[in-house]
Design goal:
Length: about 150
Amino acid sequence: MVRSSELGPLLEPAQPKIEAWRVKATKHYMTTWNEVSAYLLDVQYTNRGPRPPSTGTAVDSAAFVKALSSKEKDAMKEKFRAFNTSFDEMVAKHKTYKMEKEVKVSLARDVQRLIEPLYSRHWDRYHEIDKGKGKYVKYDKTQLNAVLT
């Protein structure tokens, strides 16, 4: 955008420095979203049972949840609850930030690339923990995608 404007020739020498600032600011902004995404990570124990399918086929959430102990189920419920709270706070903050539309859209895309795959995998495995009540699993995959876009 700047390169094609009248400012292009004036700012060309400073372009590497500007790009470094942009990368640093994006990294700083994404740090808070990394904290949100941490709730979607879980420990995988490879010696506990059969390996989950890696063929791209759907995971049977009900069977996956049924195999969890009550302590593990409570931990998953807490992860969903904490994710929902943290996610909602960050979305609200993002909406209040005053910045150029292109910058806001670019940051939203970066957030979507980070959160969506993690949430999708987490939702595929554990959405039955809620039994469809919406108490812990606030968003399905399409709802989350709609919020992120």
